[in-house]
Amino acid sequence: QKSVLKYSPRCTGCFFEDINYAADGGLYAELVKNRSFEFPQHLMGWNTFGNVKVMDDGPFERNPHYVRLGNPGHPHKHTGIENEGFFGIGVKEGAEYRFSVWARGENQKLTVELI
Fold first, then answer.
1. Where are the beta strands (DSSP E) in 1-115?
2. Mean pLDDT of successive 10-residue segments in the chain (115 residues)?
3. DSSP 8-state symbol, 71
4. What residues have CB less than 8 Å from 7, skipping those under 6 apart?
5. Is residue 79 within 8 Å of residue 69, measured between CB atoms?
6. Counting CB atoms within 10 angstroms of each CB, which of 14, 21, 48, 64 has the fewest?
7. DSSP 8-class letter at 73
8. How many whole angstroms separate alpha carbon 112 and alpha carbon 115?
9. What is d(CA 82, CA 45) in angstroms, rounded to the nearest whole number?
10. pTM for this one?
11. What is the Cα–Cα distance from 80 to 85, expressed in whole angstroms?
């Protein structure tokens, strides 16, 4: 069959359809969704419990949003956040992963857990 259109033989193309997080969580290999709270909905991808607030007073120019975890108001309750990833966070036994977080506490014990 003959083509009825003329086009440059140098013309190339690519079609990429981002289905089921093929880009985020796929080609872009970040495991944590919305890792720096910069999505328009700042807590998208995060589940929170206790006293959690998104702050934007800009201590970091490139990532102005951060989360402040406050006292939950009861000695038997906790405050925290957990990330849902992209349909979960797939990890492999024996694999190495890099994790970094900026955290500080004010006159109290600070515990960070990766579960």
1. 46-49, 51-55, 66-70, 80-83
2. 80 80 71 91 95 87 89 88 90 88 77 77
3. P
4. none
5. yes
6. 14
7. S
8. 10
9. 8
10. 0.72
11. 16
